[in-house]
Amino acid sequence: MKTFYGNEYNFSWIDGKKIESDHSSEVINPATGQSIGLVPDGGAKLTLRAIDAAAQALPSWSKLTAGTRAGYLLDWADRVIADKEALAQLLSLEQGKPLDEARGEIEGVAVYIRWYAEEGKRAYGEIIPASRPGQQLMVFREAIGVVGLITPANFPAAILATKVAPALAAGCSFVLKPAEQTPMIAIALLSHLMATQLPAGVANLVTGNPEEIGGTLSADPRVRKISFTGSTEVGKILMRQAADNVKRLTLELGGNAPVVVFPDADLDKAVDGIMGNKFENCGQVCNGINLIYVHEDIHQALVEKLAERIKVLKVAAGSEPGCQVGPMIDPSYLNKVETLVNDAVMKGAKVLAGGHRIVEDGYHVGNFYAPTLLDGVHEEMELTRKEIFGPVAPVLTFTDESVVIERCNNTPYGLAGYVYTRDAARMFRLIAGLEVGNLAVNGTSLANPQTPFGGVKESGIGRVGGRQGLEEYMELKYVALTLE
Ligand code: NAP
Predict the structure, then answer these.
(1) Beta pairing, strands 392-398 & 289-295
(2) What pLDDT does residue 363 have?
(3) Beta strands 35-40; 146-150: pairing state
């Protein structure tokens, strides 16, 4: 397995060309703290060049047929799959996630690309019955224009695909800015896209200073939309910036997802679901379970089963065989997790597993945190209000259904929720009651290319996935045509 890429990805993609940079930044392997290569440290100047290229490429790209654009996308997906193993190794090395999870993420990239290649062919308009004789009322759907795409570090390949694929399918050109911790997988994926002979300037990628790149994308009126996935804090900055030229936004932001386990639930199924969701990607998942609400009657049984499973999770570098939980992406994430756990313990939470950093030879000291189970958690603790974004499972108890719904909703976030119950009437009360954009009942799997994923409240605006995800990259043009 390759562990050092040097200058292999030390370039930006602008106007169909690899642009080398005078200034570079190191990319760090979160498992070892060692450099794995260099990428350009770009800023406003490079971003402007990328916007120029995207603006120039837009008219001819948006005029192609959806079928022709689909051809490029399908070719791209094939190339990604042909290079799956190398891409997964790069992703695991750069991001830290277990290699098997990285393989799954790369497969998911191809699934999204292929789905949007086909969905682009179904961007239908409408004919509306007229109010006057001799009139045709029509609605056309058009590509929104040049779009800015900003992606986070937790699923740097999958989230890239959920933006790039619908943008291209809709006929948009774009400027992409990946997260500073995970730029190489983005450059590698774009390189496969460029290998399809995509027309120059349609796809551009800039790495470097987030404020400069984001600020330049926001300020330029040629960029008609920004699609951002990341923290609510940065989403709010982009929203303020977008106000100046009334730019369209898709914002996929932070979450504070509850899972509610009722006494009639299949407990083993609930434990499987919680384990699969909570410790995926070392807990760095936007729709990851943040709080586990369990009915008092089954509380003891649930925590015993969870403790048993959590204590034996294998924590290691993502590339190590059998790794189930990798390092956190960087020390700032771990510091936040540690502060939240310490606060909970100080206020009375009981540590049933983990609760500490892992310091081992060869491992980067600041990035490994033991999978943790906290019991006796209550709302005075900070971690009930903040997104933990780490391998920590806090357990709270409840007795009353309507009260637990209120407790779940008592947060500015509204991304995801999970419910375990076999009672059909209760399922529908929870579906109606929980203020979230995405809800799974008796399971924890939510992501599909054909479904609209997104948040309510401070978890975001707009949707990723589904036909709604394509609509995010299109504008409506209503035409009243008088024939006589
Ligand atoms: P983040 O710190 O907000 O960064 C996300 C992206 O924004 C990165 O590319 C970052 O660049 C960039 N950025 C930072 N400051 C910026 C600015 N002023 N202008 C423009 N761009 C700027 O988020 P993260 O830590 O990578 O990701 C974790 C967060 O993302 C969590 O809250 C998680 O819940 C959320 N998330 C949400 C979803 C969803 O679908 N709702 C999915 C995944 C993640 P740099 O890396 O260069 O700083």
Answers:
(1) parallel
(2) 76
(3) unpaired
pLDDT interval class at 359 (50, 70, 90): confident
The answer, yes or no, to whether residue 255 has pLDDT greater than 90, is yes
Q: How far is CA 350 from the centre of its chain?
A: 31
Residue 227 to residue 410: CA distance in whole angstroms:
27
pLDDT per position as a tens digit, 311-348: 999 999 999 999 999 999 999 999 999 999 999 999 99
Q: Going by C-beta distance under 8 Å and a sequence separation of 6 or more, which residues neighbour residue 251?
A: 228, 229, 235, 238, 239, 460, 461, 462
Q: Which of 305, 306, 295, 287 is nearest to 423 (CA)?
A: 295
In whole angstroms, give the CA distance from residue 175 to residue 172.
Answer: 10
**Residues paired with residue 20 on neighbouring β-strands, in sequence order:** 11
Cβ(205) – ligand 1 distance below 6 Å: no
459 secondary structure, DSSP code? G
- The residue nearest atom 6 of ligand 1, judged by CA position, is 152
Best residue for ligand 1 mutational test, from 95, 105, 286 (most atoms within 8 Å of Cβ): 286
Q: How many residues does the chain have?
A: 484
> Regarding beta strands 474-482 and 135-143, do their DSSP bridges make them parallel or antiparallel, or are they unpaired?
antiparallel
282 is catalytic: no
Helix (H, G, I), strand (E, B) or coil at 66: helix
Q: Which tokens in the block code for residue 198?
A: 């995509």
Alpha helices (H) along 355-413: 401-409
Using most ligand atoms within 8 A of CB, pick from 97, 160, 233, 234 the residue to mutate for ligand 1.
Answer: 234
Using 50, 70 and 90 to split pLDDT, how confident is the model at 366?
confident
Of the residues 252, 280, 458, 471, only one is catalytic, namely: 252
Nearest ligand 1 atom to the CA of 237 is 18
What's the N-to-C CA distance of the chain in angstroms?
71
- The strands making up 460-461's β-sheet, listed across from edge to edge, are 17-20, 11-14, 203-205, 173-177, 146-150, 223-229, 248-252, 460-461
Rounded alpha-carbon distances, angstroms, from residue 320 to 34, 108, 358: 16, 22, 16
Tokens 């954009």 belong to residue? 437
Task: Give residue 231 CA to ligand 1 midpoint distance, Å.
Answer: 5
> What's the token pair of residue 440?
């799974």
Instruction: Using the mean position of ligand 1's atoms as its centre, give its distance from the Cα of residue 65 in Å.
Output: 33
Sign of the CA dihedral 477, 469, 436, 411? negative
408 is catalytic: no
8 A C-beta contact, residue 266 and residue 298: no
Residue recorded with tokens 């490429």: 57
Find the catalytic residue in 172, 282, 286, 408: 286
Band (483; pLDDT cuts 50, 70, 90): confident
pLDDT of residue 238: 98
